[in-house]
Each structure stands twice: as structure tokens, then as C-alpha cells.
Known about the structure:
Number of strands: 4
Largest sheet: 4 strands, mixed
Helix content: 55-70%
Strand content: 5-15%
Bound molecules: S-(P-nitrobenzyl)glutathione
Number of helices: 9
Order of helices and strands: EHEHHEEHHHHHH
Distance between the termini: 30 Å
Strand order of the largest sheet: 2-1-3-4
Amino acid sequence: MTITITAFDRSPDGGQGLARDTRVRWALEEVGQPYEVRLVSFRGLKEPAHLALHPFGQIPTYEEGDLALFETGSIVFHIAERRAGLLPDDACARARAITWMFAAINTVEPPILELANAIVLESDKPWNNERLPLVKDRVRDRLKQLSARLGDAPWLDGPFSAGDLMMVSVLLRLRSSGLLDEYPSLSAYVARGEARPAYKRAFDAQWAVNNRPAD
Ligand code: GTB
């Protein structure tokens, strides 16, 4: 059955891979599942046809036959559950990998999004200079804890899993802030993720869309 995801018609990052369709593309590439992409404009996101798929008017979405999903955590979990390659067979190891998926989006991603908002949306606010260091320190707290848990291991819990895919995807958003460089083991962890052939295919696919000639 054909799988169709949605992505920005033109991502504001110009193809740096930071929009969240990249993590879904990556998961599909890891399990060797071909997919199609429907590009949506910012206006299209808020139109009824897209809102029927995504109540919050965002990308990405995932369609497979009668099934329509939104939320990257749910989409990546769905892909990982149904095809081999992203979750271990052992029940306990599988539960731990799923726990890391939740940790990525529930515990690590929120302060990173807070930082992105502080930098992109709040830089002109009179209180931003005072608040920004606090927001950065909240990100550092999480990075320190994550780095301590990762230690010298290549991945968070045994072989690469959907937990690592989500965690690396979340951490990638930090690169331009320089904060990741303060934690060399996490920088190396993210680099290992980016070096995976499946990530490269996902990145290249979204890059090509975002750098195609103007219509
Ligand atoms: N929790 C949802 C999920 O994980 O699926 C969040 C989805 C989401 O935030 N989607 C964003 C969106 O559609 C795109 S990824 N925004 C449009 C809107 O809300 O109207 C967020 C994103 C966008 C752009 C960059 N960038 O250019 O650097 C990075 C991340």
C-alpha cells in the first residue's frame, strides 16, 4: 500500500533537515519502505483538506490506505512497530527503546523548542537578554543528563533504535546554537546518526525538494 507523507512546500530552513518530515523520512528509509510526499504550502496547512488530516494544521502527516496519522512520535512508532529495523525483538529492550522515543519528545525536545522560540520569535523582546541564559541553562541541564547516561556507548540502549532516531532528530535542532558542542559525546552521537545511510537518503530527499528551481 502506498505511503504518503506531507512536508512543507518550502521549508523555512531551506532544506537543513530541521522540519519534522525529516524524522519520518528517516524512519521510512531505515526500514526500507518507499513513500510519496505531498507538499503543502503554509496556507494549505490551515485549509479544511489538510486540517482533516492534522487538527493543528501542521506537517508531517502519514497516510496509508484508510489510516491517517499526525504527530511524529506516533508516526515513527507506527513505522517501527510494523517493519523490522527500528525496534528490538526482545520485549524489554523494545519497551526501553520506546521509552527513549518518549524521552526524546517529552523531556528533551521541550526545552530545545523553548530555546528555538526564544531565539527566533522573542529576540526583539526587552526581556530576552535576561531570559535567554535561563532557557539555555535548561537545555544544558538535559544535555548533561543525557550525556551522562550515554557515556561512551554508541547508542542509548544497545543497537540503534527508533529511540535514537527520535533523540538525534531532536538534538539536531540545537546545532546552530553551539550548545551541542559543549557535550562532545552528544555531538559525536548526533554525527553517528547523520552518518547513517538512511539518514543521508532522508536528508537528501528533503534537500532536493527545498532546493528545486522555483515553480
Ligand atoms: N508535535 C508535532 C510533531 O512532532 O509532529 C509538531 C509538528 C510541527 O511542529 N510541525 C511544524 C509545522 O507544521 C513543522 S516542523 N509548523 C507550521 C505551523 O504550525 O503552522 C517545525 C519546524 C519548522 C521549521 C524549522 N526550521 O525552518 O528550522 C524547524 C522546525
